[in-house]
Structure formats: C-alpha cells, structure tokens
Amino acid sequence: MKIAFGTITGGGYVSDNTGLQFSSGEYAANGTKFFSNGTTDSMSGKHDFTVNLNTPQHALGFFAMDWQDIGGKVSLSLGEQLSQSIDIFTLVGKHDSGTLIYFTLLSDIAFDSITFHKSGGDGYAIDDLSVAATPIPGAAWILGSGLIGLVGLRRKYHSA
Fold it and tell me: Is residue 118 helix, strand or coil?
C-alpha cells in the first residue's frame, strides 16, 4: 500500500466498511478505507506490517480500531535508529470490540519505520496515519526558553 509519506509492507490489506473485518469491529476512522492486519475476508491469518517512511520523522499519529479486544497484546517497534519496542497493552489495557483510539508517538531521535506486530489471533486496523519531521520536544524547548527570556525582561523593567 502506498501512502503519501512512505509505504506499508508485510501482511495485511486495505479494506473498506463493507467487508468481514468491518463487521468484526474494524472500520475507517475517516472515509471508507482502512488498513487491516488480517487476511482478506478471513477471521484468521493476522500479520505484522511495517510503515516505511520516505524520510526519517520525529512524530507519528494514527487511529487504531479494535485493538486488544480479545486479549491480544499489540506492540510496536520504531526503526533501526531507536530499536525501541512499545507494549501497547501496558499503556492502554484491554478494550471492547470496535474501540477507536488515537495514538501520537514523539521522539527526539528521528525514525524511518514503525512495525505493527501481530497480536496472537487478534485483528486490528489503523487509519489516518500522519507524520511530522520537526522534533516536538525541541520545538517546546525553544518556546520555553523564549518564554523564560520574556519573564527575565519583564523583571528587569519592573525593577528599574
């Protein structure tokens, strides 16, 4: 599957709001298309898949549907640069079938891929992936230091 800022490789497929996956709790967060980690028109055959980014990024956001509703434990791996694995179950716990969750991942170190690992027999979907190349923590540091400078100027002029 081609996306504006990269490609998706590995298992899974693009589905819509009329297939078997839709009736089992997977659906599009926006529009009618979403990406499922399953096998077309099957309740079995769940897969890992990887979002390969055209350029390294510092932030990634996406909607997740139907995660961890039957005891599956989804985990993510962020690029070779980070070699970081994230246990989503520990972060958000078990959810009801069809639950919609929005995730934002931020990193000081740019990453060029994110792997969504299969979760036992639990199927899930993602939709509306978005990325940001500017490191958010760095931007917050610049804003914060500017605000501290303004406070310093204010004290200087009030004490004079």
Answer: coil
